[in-house]
Fold this protein.
Amino acid sequence: MRSLQRGVDYLRKLPYNRIMRKHTFFLINRKTLPILWWLSTIGLGVILILTPVSYADAQGNQSSKQYTSIIQQIFDFIQSHYVDEVDPKELYEGAMNGMFNVLGDPHSAFLPAREMMNLSDTTSGNFGGVGLYISKPNEEINGNPPYVEVAAPMEDTPGWRAGINPGDLIIKINDEPTDTLTMDEVLDRLRGKPGTTVTVLIRRGTSIEFSASLTRAIIEVPTAKYAVIGDVGYLKLLTFTPMTAQRAKEAVTYFNANNCKGFILDLRNNYGGLLNAAVDVCDLFLDGGVVVSTKSRISSENRVFYAKKDTAVPADIPVIILINSASASASEIVAGALKDRGRAYLVGAKSYGKGSVQQVFPIQGKQDGFKITVARYYTPSDVNIDGSGIPPDREVPVPEFTENDMESLKALIEANEIPVYVKEHPNLSSAEINAYAARLSVQYSLNAELLRLFIRNEQIRTTIAPVYDLDYDVQLQEAVNILNGGSYRQLMQRTKTIKQLQDEAEAEEMTAAS
């Protein structure tokens, strides 16, 4: 034991690289293999002894430079001493993912080359694919395999026409399970030459599974659709790209030329996009003043964005904004700004609640990059809605299937009745849809109103989707009724800023707690 202690004491005095040279020396001398085992054991002990000391020092005043030095040493040590050969790229990506995961921020992440390209495509480009916004965890969450999750389908794309919904899981791609695939591999399998086919297995809820054959197409990132409903201008923004404000301005010009007496801005299922695009859209409705502010510990990110003087939409034109639980980020900037400034009445359901700003940075010398939260944004009433969302001025719930409906719904989907019926009857009228829904309601014990929507959605997916569907969209119906009913001005007088609503909610919580 004394000789072992002397060996440890000796090794403690050696710098790290000299220990490594000792290892190399013993490896080339077969007579000293027992000593090699002994010294290797001591070396491991030395590392385990010294590491806590280094980290203990780090808890005090160790600098970032010292931490990065430790990371570099461990990186090199794993490459040199791990029992199996390790791809340095895997170590690099693992370290990058670890740094961003520890932030606990779902909006900050390392972006491998493929994801960087995908992000660029969805903000400004086009590509051959199936038209699905997807995400994928790196590991199991609460015991659930890391399958691909659909965030949203793009309208009028193969994925949308196949009836794939937000929240659906892609379990397999061409019979290959997705839980073992990386995001790069998933994208490689979903994208491809337009006209070729890929088959996906979809899981909906806990028990419904069905296959969908998707024919790849050129996917152009959509941004806006518009039309006139009677004397009301209807503008649906699908995302916020560099072209969104221009397309919105074209719509407003069209509405003004048609003497529209009210505007509806539909931001439902709009996941967001570029902050500047959101500010430019607000500029069409606001005559100067604050649109949004960003706050951060980084001084350069503390900014206030203002609308320009004059507006494209006359100040006396009533404006209603449609929002729902999938309206996020840039959509909430627009909804929050126009609500707080008293320029729009909100109808629908509470928005998602993403009140942070991300920037994307490339990594020098590589095609990889990362996105990171650099600030939080605040509405004109100085409120951050992260995690809380924006409540509508008038809530209009959309009927949904309950958990008790799942078995019946599963049987209906597996029977494939609705797609077959719609294919055989391509020109169903509203009355015919109602009659068919009533029959299915009796057969499967499901809500007839929801079945009407199912049938109508299937009908739409076999054609070019209409800009709006007033017969089946209850939230849009309510917005049109408000504008046509003459109650808009009175309703606007009773609206509150987001700050007032949050203060009231906090006061109610305190009262309930006491």
